[in-house]
Amino acid sequence: MFLTISTTGSPERPATDLGYLLHKHPGKAQAFSTSHGTAQVFYPEATDQRCTAALLLEVDPIALVRRGQGKGRGGAPDSALAQYVNDRPYAASSLLAVALSGVFRNALKGQCAARPELPEQALRLRIEIPVLPARGGAELVHRLFDPLGWDRVETRPVVLDEQFPEWGDSRYVRLVLEGELRLADALRQLYVLLPVLDDAKHYWIAPDEVDKLLRAGDGWLAGHPEHGLISSRYLARHKGLTRNALERLELVRLAEADGAEVEDLDNAVDEASDTPERPTPLAVLRREAILAALRSAGAARVLDLGCGQGQLVQALLGDVSFTEIVGVDVSMRALSVAAKRLRLERMGERQSERVRLLQGSLAYTDRRLAGYDAAVLSEVIEHLDLERLPALEYAVFGSARPRTVLVTTPNVEYNVRWETLPAGHVRHGDHRFEWTREEFRDWAAAVARRHGYTVGFVPVGDDDPEVGPPTQMAVFTRTDATAASAGTTAGATTTETPKEGEAA
Ligand code: SAH
To answer: Which of 287, 383, 392, 430 to mutate to test the pocket of ligand 1 (most atoms within 8 A of CB)?
Structure first.
């Protein structure tokens, strides 16, 4: 099994920088033992102009058989011989993907301690895989790689036997990819797509395969037109895991759409207004209302669920009464923007002990979220499909159960006051729904009833006599905590107490 990665240099950057990125010195040939054989890394060429790294994996077929993993394709099916005589040693299968992730671990993660700026840069790359097993043929190879930003995706069928051209082509292709990409992105694509094309995953599919897939797919998989096929094959057609992966990818896609649309209409409208006294942007008013409610609840340890790009986390850090702040989001991209905004890397020890960012989906219960004083869901619920809301409700109010929960969401009645919003439109392309005040109250009251909370409501922004405020906020307080923290609902306009015997 063989794979080469080449790059060309430029006046600013010698091609041999590839060695830094791969963490493998161009002057040395190195061998690594992997669970399926020996991986060798060496450089057939290494000049300032051109540098090529080769990864050669020598698979030990006997060892594969001993591990019960030799049943790859390429041999007579179901025959004892197929265990010993098969394509595994020769074709760039999932075994190569595993070796790739082991030998080039840091490169896959986009880490380079010696030259931290390098992984961020796109390089002129050429990747060649002489024998790629491709169930689905060259056509599928194109469907998988064409959308990924390569300038050239070239596939050439490998003939079954050069001596007997009449036998036709084998099911293997020679693949060449050329383009300007970050090395980490290219390697992560291969890590996922080699086993997908091979479609004979050799290892046990554990539940954490979904996490691996999402990590390796960050930035390219959610938006890929074939993400369904990729997930299903990568997870060896395991139905439950595939469904889980697709749900999470859907959330990532939504979150990415969000990130692209930095300018939320709520804010854009305010910025567009020309009045000499610019009104405070609604996003700022919302943050102030949230901070005030958290302070009056006496919360010190706070979860920001669906923290997005970290604006609220940043505001919370500015007040020492918040001793522990955890931002949670499903989108890695949003979290990495948040980490930059907060300068997490450069933060002093005192500060960095106060704050953490976690990736997670609010549609699943998560033990890491238990035991906090308060949780904030600021402009998050409307991004979930209505049928997924009960899952979020259970994860937050049933499982994590903080003493205080703040939920903000747009008040759809107010939309008629936005001059730039066409009638009947929601404020943001990704909003799955927008509620009237009554709808929000009904939902919140039912949630409170089901989970042992009381709830009050606070208007945020200009509270229009007719249509109400642009943002509505619900303040939930766990019933068994009400006595301990009197004044929790200060500022609330109404308080609904759960009524005994009322069905949810
Ligand atoms: N709270 C921020 C961001 C709101 S945008 C603010 O008030 O500005 C909605 C955020 O919710 C996005 O960052 C999106 O990634 C996140 N999100 C949507 N569905 C989610 C889910 N199921 N689990 C976790 N986060 C989710």
So the answer is: 383
Ligand 1 neighbours by CB, cut-off 6 Å = 251, 255, 258, 306-308, 311, 329-331, 334, 361-363, 378-380, 383-384
* pLDDT category of residue 271 using cuts at 50, 70 and 90: very low
For residue 220, what is the DSSP state? Answer: T
**Distance between CA 241 and CA 225 in Å, rounded?**
19
Rounded to 5 degrees, what are φ and ψ at 183?
A: -60, -40
* Cβ atoms of 361 and 329 closer than 8 Å: no
Tell me if the pTM is above 0.70. Answer: no
Give the helix/strand (H/E) hosting 171. Answer: strand 169-182
Query: Domain of 121: which CATH number?
Result: 3.30.1610.20
- Position in ligand 1 atom list of the atom nearest CA 363: 22
Residues 349 and 456 in one domain: yes
Q: What's the 413 CA to ligand 1 centre distance in angstroms?
A: 22
Q: Predicted confidence band at 387 (pLDDT cuts at 50, 70, 90)?
A: very high
Query: Are 339 and 471 part of one and the same domain?
Result: yes
Domain containing residue 348: 281-494
Of 150, 169, 203, which marks where a domain is finished? 203
